[in-house]
């Protein structure tokens, strides 16, 4: 009765949730009356559920996935980290870090046979238990739990098997059969320690795996996991509409596997606590399938030792200095290149052929100087500071052989040559990749569209006139020589790098002290060149095809246009014909002037400035030829008209000496005023049309301007001259008539006498 009161009193001190987890000491709730039609309350259902399956995790806690066993502990979030599951760390608290306690240690001797423990272990483990009497009741309960856990997991005696223990061989390696026997024995020993789970254990274990932990207690899977998985799957499969249902199923399966694996890990970890197993009524859980790894048999022992000794003396690849050289290379010279293609692409493109060659030479020379003045001296300094790695290869006296030290530095030279060779190969690859940007070529569908070639070009090629054709400057042959020479420039600047022993031992002479590198005769180099040449050939199509744009201007190149103009001038044409001809030439010139000055074509960029200017000048010359012809015609015609006006003016201004001259002048004046002046006016009309034409197209010199001014002043002047001459001649005629009448009268008077 006293025990019953004590147990009831102990349960009364616990909270309600503690009652749920220890339902085996409490009678179950009576069933609801049959008359109750309402559903049981949530509390009733929870209590009934916990009566059969005590909770594994706390329903509410500061942290996610907090075990139920931590319910009666008062821990902050920081105190709950790393001690929720670990038996040895569950009593650690941050507030106790500054305090120093005598650690309660348990010395467990490691006995291979597992036959039992010596008495010293029991003695050492009993003293800390006695010291724990000073702790609080809660600490006392925790310490009891720890001791019980250790007694259950570590100090439980092992069952002896009838099979005798195996004796491991000494220096000789075990055969696969022996390794398998050892693993089987260890598995049997572990199996003998654990009890086989009952059906109830399996049923309750499966329940906690599926219902013991809520999904929201587990951190969701990172999105990057699905991204990494998708990267391993072909895009064709991911985007296939037929596989979309399968994709949904697989994604859901992956998510379920993620949560189920984490739930199983948490449940297994909690069940490592014997107190939790007892509370959850799970005595044993299924064992995992053992993983067995067997080492394959290898030939031993003397052969290995002799090979190891030979390698130590002759295989210098594993010497620590090689690692130092490798670390130095990757730390300081990993990004070194003979041609810095990234800098070229980031610079101003396209480059003139000479500019391209200057950049290649500059980059190669800088890389060569870096290797010569920085890499080799740094390696030599490294050898000087790390003599302990190689000085033992040197002969101890003048009579010892130098073979070991020579082999060592030969290996060093080979290693550094490989590094230099790697630098050259990567530089060649970078240069090839610089041209491989344009591997698709520059062929295009006519008409040419500039926006299709938006990638920066490398080399500028000028278009020039070499009558009667258009040529490339430089030619494609010269361009290929320039590109090939850029590859050879890398090979050239990689040569002449001395070996490190030439710096360590300047007195060395008599054999090759230069690091080997890539040779221009190697197939590797020729493959790079052939690969680049294919790209170069693909980029010759566009420039040659673009010349078709200038086909319509071939007459300007082969002087056919000049011959046509000469034939045109030999014929008689009106001013309108000249205007049409000049406008046609002007239109062609404007078309040429509006053509592309630079023509992007993948690898190359055509500079058509000189070509367009030359064609424009040829068209302009034709235009000026026509205009000059009209200027000359205008000058000659105007001079002729002015001369005629001047002749008429001079003639009509003469004073007749006799009647015959008077009659001639009167007739000349009449003819000039009635006929000649009208003809001259028609010529003046033509001259005005020519002048209007010349005002639009020509820059007349001062003499022609003065001549035109004089020409158009003549009509008014000639009228005044005509008027004056007419008056003068009339006066002369009247005077002549009076003289004639007078003479007639005198003659008549003589007759009458």
From TrEMBL:
InterPro entries: DHC. GO terms for molecular function: dynein intermediate chain binding; dynein light intermediate chain binding. It comes from the Eukaryota. One of its GO terms (cellular component) is dynein complex. Residues 116-127 have a biased composition (Polar residues). Residues 17-39, 108-142 are annotated as: Disordered. GO terms for biological process: microtubule-based movement. PANTHER family: DYNEIN HEAVY CHAIN 6, AXONEMAL-LIKE-RELATED, DYNEIN, AXONEMAL, HEAVY CHAIN 3. This is Dynein axonemal heavy chain 3. It comes from Macaca mulatta. The lineage of its organism: Eukaryota, Metazoa, Chordata, Craniata, Vertebrata.
């Amino acid at each position: 009765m006293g025990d019953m009161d004590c147990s009831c009193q102990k349960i009364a001190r616990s909270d309600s949730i503690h009652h749920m987890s220890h339902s085996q000491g409490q009678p179950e709730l009576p069933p609801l009356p049959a008359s109750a039609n309402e559903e049981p309350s949530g509390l009733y259902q929870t209590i009934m559920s916990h009566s059969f399956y005590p909770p594994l995790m706390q329903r509410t806690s500061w942290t996610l996935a907090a075990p139920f066993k931590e319910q009666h502990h008062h821990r902050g979030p920081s105190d709950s980290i790393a001690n929720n599951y670990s038996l040895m760390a569950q009593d650690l608290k941050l507030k106790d870090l500054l305090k120093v306690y005598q650690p309660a240690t348990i010395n467990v001797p490691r006995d291979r046979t597992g036959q039992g423990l010596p008495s010293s272990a029991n003695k050492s483990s009993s003293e800390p238990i006695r010291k724990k009497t000073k702790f609080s009741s809660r600490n006392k309960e925790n310490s009891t739990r720890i001791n019980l856990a250790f007694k259950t997991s570590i100090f439980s005696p092992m069952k002896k098997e009838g099979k005798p223990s195996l004796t491991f061989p000494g220096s000789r390696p075990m055969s696969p059969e022996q390794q398998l026997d050892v693993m089987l024995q260890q598995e049997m020993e572990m199996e003998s320690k654990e009890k086989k789970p009952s059906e109830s254990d399996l049923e309750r274990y499966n329940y906690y795996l599926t219902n013991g932990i809520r999904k929201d207690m587990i951190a969701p899977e990172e999105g990057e996991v699905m991204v990494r998985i998708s990267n391993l799957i072909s895009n064709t499969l991911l985007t296939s509409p037929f596989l979309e249902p399968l994709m949904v199923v697989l994604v859901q399966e992956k998510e379920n596997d993620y949560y189920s694996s984490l739930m199983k890990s948490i449940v297994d970890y909690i069940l490592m606590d014997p107190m939790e197993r007892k509370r959850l009524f799970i005595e044993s859980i299924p064992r995992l399938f053992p993983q067995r790894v067997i080492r394959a048999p290898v030939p031993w022992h003397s052969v290995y030792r002799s090979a190891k000794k030979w390698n130590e003396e002759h295989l210098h690849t594993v010497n620590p200095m090689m690692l130092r050289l490798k670390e130095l290379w990757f730390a300081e010279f990993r990004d070194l290149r003979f041609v810095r293609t990234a800098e070229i692409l980031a610079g101003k493109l396209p480059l003139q052929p000479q500019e391209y060659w200057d950049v290649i030479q500059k980059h190669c020379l800088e890389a060569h100087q870096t290797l010569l003045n920085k890499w080799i001296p740094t390696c030599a300094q490294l050898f000087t500071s790390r003599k302990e790695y190689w000085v033992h290869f040197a002969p101890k006296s003048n009579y010892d052989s130098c073979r070991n030290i020579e082999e060592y530095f030969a290996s060093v030279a080979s290693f550094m040559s490989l590094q230099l060779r790697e630098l050259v190969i990567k530089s060649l690859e970078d240069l090839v990749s610089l041209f491989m940007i344009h591997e698709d070529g520059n062929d295009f569908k006519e008409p040419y569209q500039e926006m299709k070639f938006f990638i920066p070009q490398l080399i500028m090629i000028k278009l020039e006139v070499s009558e009667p054709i258009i040529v490339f400057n430089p030619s494609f042959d010269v361009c290929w020589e320039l590109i090939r020479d850029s590859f050879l420039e890398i090979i050239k600047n990689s040569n002449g790098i001395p070996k490190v022993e030439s710096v360590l031992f300047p007195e060395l002479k008599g054999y090759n002290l230069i690091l080997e590198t890539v040779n221009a005769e190697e197939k590797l180099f020729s493959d790079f060149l052939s690969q680049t040449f294919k790209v170069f050939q693909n980029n010759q199509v566009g420039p040659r095809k673009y010349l078709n744009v200038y086909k319509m201007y071939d007459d300007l190149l082969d002087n056919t246009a000049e011959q046509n103009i000469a034939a045109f001038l030999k014929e008689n044409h009106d001013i309108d014909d000249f205007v049409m001809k000049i406008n046609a030439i002007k239109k062609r010139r404007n078309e040429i002037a509006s053509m592309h000055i630079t023509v992007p074509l993948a690898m190359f960029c055509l500079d058509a400035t000189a070509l367009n200017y030359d064609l424009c000048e040829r068209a302009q010359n034709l235009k000026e030829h026509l205009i000059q012809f009209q200027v000359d015609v205008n000058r000659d015609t105007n001079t002729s008209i002015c001369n005629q006006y001047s002749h008429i003016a001079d003639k009509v201004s003469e004073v007749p000496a006799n009647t015959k001259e008077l009659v001639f002048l009167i007739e000349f004046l009449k003819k000039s005023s009635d006929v000649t002046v009208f003809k001259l006016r028609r010529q003046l009309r033509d001259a005005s049309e020519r002048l209007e034409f010349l005002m639009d197209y020509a820059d007349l010199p001062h003499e022609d301007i003065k001549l035109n001014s004089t020409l158009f002043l003549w009509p008014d002047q000639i009228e005044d001259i005509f008027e004056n001459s007419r008056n003068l001649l009339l006066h002369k005629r009247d005077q002549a008539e009076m003289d004639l009448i007078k003479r007639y009268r005198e003659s008549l008077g003589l007759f009458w006498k």
